[in-house]
Write a structure and sequence with these properties.
The complex is a heterodimer. Chain A is an alpha+beta fold. Helix content of chain A is 20%, strand content 39%. Chain A has a single domain, classed as OB fold (Dihydrolipoamide Acetyltransferase, E2P) (Beta Barrel), CATH 2.40.50.180. In chain B, helix 1 runs antiparallel to helix 2 and helix 5 packs antiparallel against helix 6 (352-484). By secondary structure, chain B is mainly alpha-helical. The chains are: A alpha+beta, B mainly alpha. The A-B interface holds A 4, 7, 11, 14-15, 18, 23-26, 32, 34, 47-48, 50-55, 104, 117-118, 120 and B 331, 334-335, 337-339, 341-342, 345-346, 352-353, 355-356, 359-360, 362-364, 366-367, 371, 374, 378.
Chain lengths: 174, 490
């Protein structure tokens, strides 16, 4: 049996198994995360902090001096400001924004480069930050294989944006 | 100039000069003899004139005397003689006149004499007639009246004058005859002496000249005989050497003949081998042609493989496009599942079942996405393999092209080999034929050399004979030299 045949067989079994296993409701102690890559670093974003994931949206630039603001985009009949997520957390700005995360609490979207997938972890899998890891928009991290993936604290980032928008002359540093 | 004349020409010239001298003498003598004969004729002519004058005088006298006899006797016998005398007178007178036609003086004298004779004869006839008619006395009387003595005397005188003139002419002509005779004798005598002297001189000159010339020629003959002798010796020696050399050449030719036959046999074997090689080359060429056709089939198959591979690559690309759509769908499904999860979380307790379905959908989308990525990887591998196969096939096609060209070259080489082998076969046959002809020619050369050897032997024999002949010629030259130059030579 060739490698392709084995892969096809494994895929077929996976499908069959997926539809054959009893449905297990998600445990209340689990946390759904999106695996994203900001810059060259792996990050995780809790699904609870977002209201939607979109790709390929057209971003219309708007005049202004808000740091990380890329423009406006339409989401199901509503406009939302789109920010450069890596730039907001102090990384290199995006060269092309493909993915957009729409925040759950405010019509604000965050653009990032690559979506790595969905990850469901137990609550106790979230590790606390050390003194050296602490930032305002990070609330822990998980061990994803050999990777150390920080969990983005999106409400803190929105709060800082709101604060920044109220006092726009404070500078680029959030 | 004379020194360049030939022997015959000199003799002819000498005899010619002698003959010319003799002819000159003979001509002069002939001319003098003719002159002498003429002179003698004229002397005889004069004698005849004198005789006829005497006859005329005698006839006149006879007529006178017989007339007197008739007159005295009356006999008719005297008249017969008288008549005969009359005829003699006429005949003699006519002869004299005829004989003296060249002498006008005598003709004039005869013209004077004739009437005198006629007168006298008339007197005589008158006397006869008178005697016959009147008798003797009348006749005597008539005779005494006519006075016959004066007429007869005149006739005698005139005939004597004529005779005297003839006598004078006779003297002159006799003297001329004697002079001519004397001159002829002188010419004959002195001419004979001169001819003898000329012949002697010519003989001396010819003898002397020929002696020198023949002596010189004999000397040359002697030296030539000596040279001929030396040459004959050398020729005999050369002939002997040639005979020996011809024997050696004949031996060599025999060896060459054996070699030629061996070459001919070898050429025949080469021709046979070349024919077998040509057959093998033709077979090889046929095999190459068939192989070339097979290569053409392989090339067509490879072209089809390339076409199929390219088609496979194209299909793989199309599969990749479809797979992109599948990936896009999986991604969108994943997005929808994530969004459904988000929405289900927002729906509270009622959304939990929906969250489960959304989670399954998301897992399914993840699997589909992962499988699609693996399929993409496989397709990329297939495309890579196709590209590698196409490249390998193209390389193989190039190799096939190269092989085809090499087979074409090989086919051309086989054809060239077949052609060259054909040429070799033809050349071998020509060599065999030429060698046979050479063998035949060598046979003929061998025969010719045998003939040459025989000729050399004959030449040697002939040279010996030539040597003897040269010695004999040298001896004869010495003898001849001694003949023409006594006291010279050994």
């Amino acid at each position: 049996m060739t490698r392709v045949s084995r892969q096809v067989l494994a895929l077929k079994r996976g499908f069959d198994l997926a539809f054959a296993e009893p449905r297990q409701p998600p445990s209340p102690q689990t946390l759904d995360l999106l695996q994203v890559r900001l810059g060259d670093d792996p990050w995780a974003v809790p699904l609870a902090d977002v209201s939607g994931l979109h790709s390929g949206k057209r971003i219309t630039p708007v005049p202004g001096h808000a740091p990380g603001l890329l423009g406006l985009a339409g989401f199901r009949g509503a406009l939302a400001a789109v920010y450069d997520l890596p730039a907001l957390i102090g990384l290199a700005p995006l060269s092309g924004a493909r993915w957009l995360l729409l925040a759950a609490v405010r019509p604000v979207a965050f653009a990032f480069g690559d979506l790595e997938g969905h990850l469901r972890v137990e609550a106790d899998a979230i590790l606390p930050l050390g003194p050296e890891d602490g930032t305002a928009w990070t609330r822990g991290f998980i061990e994803d294989g050999r990777l150390r993936r920080p969990i983005l604290h999106l409400p803190a980032l929105l709060a800082r944006l709101a604060q920044t928008n109220q006092t726009p002359q404070e500078g680029n540093d959030l | 100039m004379i020194s360049g004349w030939t022997f015959g020409r000199r003799l002819a010239a000498g005899f010619g000069v002698a003959c010319a001298v003799l002819l000159l003498i003979a001509g002069i003598t002939y001319r003098n003899t003719e002159n002498l004969v003429d002179t003698e004729d004229w002397v005889s002519h004069t004698y005849e004139v004198k005789a006829r004058l005497a006859d005329l005088l005698a006839a006149v006298t006879t007529a006178e005397s017989n007339t007197r006899g008739y007159l005295l006797t009356g006999s008719e016998n005297y008249l017969d003689t008288y008549r005969t005398a009359l005829n003699n007178i006429k005949s003699a007178f006519d002869d004299v006149r005829h004989l003296t036609t060249d002498n006008q003086h005598q003709q004039d004298r005869l013209s004077q004499l004739q009437p005198v004779i006629d007168q006298r004869l008339d007197n005589l006839r008158d006397a006869i007639d008178t005697r016959r008619s009147a008798g003797a006395e009348a006749a005597a009387k008539l005779v005494s009246q006519n006075g016959s003595g004066g007429t007869m005397g005149k006739i005698r005188l005139m005939i004597a004058d004529a005779d005297q003139e003839e006598t004078d002419l006779l003297h002159l002509r006799t003297a001329a005859s004697r002079q001519a005779t004397s001159f002829t004798i002188g010419v004959i005598t002195w001419g004979a002496l001169a001819g003898l002297a000329a012949i002697a001189a010519i003989g001396f000159l010819i003898t002397n000249s020929l002696g020198h010339q023949i002596g010189s020629a004999v000397s040359h003959v002697e030296s030539s005989a000596a040279e001929l002798q030396a040459s004959a010796n050398q020729q005999a020696q050369s002939a002997a050497e040639q005979s020996t050399a011809m024997n050696e050449v004949s031996t060599t030719i025999n060896e060459l003949l054996v070699s030629s036959r061996q070459i001919s046999e070898s050429a025949q074997r080469v021709a046979g081998s070349a024919e077998q090689t040509a057959s093998a080359a033709r077979s090889g060429q046929g095999m190459v042609d068939r192989t070339n056709e097979s290569i053409g089939g392989i090339r067509r198959q490879m072209d089809q493989i390339v076409t199929h591979m390219l088609e496979l690559g194209k299909k793989s690309q199309e599969i990749g496009s479809v797979l992109d759509i599948v990936l896009e769908l999986a991604e969108q499904t994943n997005i929808l599942a994530i969004n459904a999860t988000i929405e289900a979380a927002g729906a509270g307790e009622s959304g939990k079942r929906f969250a489960v379905v959304a989670d399954e959908i998301r897992k399914l989308a993840d699997r589909v996405g992962g499988s699609a990525k693996e399929v993409r990887t496989l397709i990329e591998e297939v495309r890579g393999a196709v590209n590698t196969t196409v490249m390998a096939t193209e390389t193989g096609s190039k190799a096939v092209d190269s092989g085809s060209r090499q087979f074409l070259d090989l086919s051309a080489a086989f054809r060239q080999i077949a052609s060259l082998v054909g040429s070799t076969t033809e050349a071998a046959r020509e060599i065999g034929l030429s060698t046979k002809q050479q063998t035949s020619a060598v046979d003929q050369v061998n025969i010719a050399i045998a003939d040459v050897t025989q000729t050399a032997r004959e030449t040697e024999t002939s040279a010996s004979e030539t040597l003897k002949t040269a010695q004999l010629l040298s001896s004869l030259a010495g003898d001849l030299l001694r003949i023409i130059r006594p006291g010279v030579g050994g």
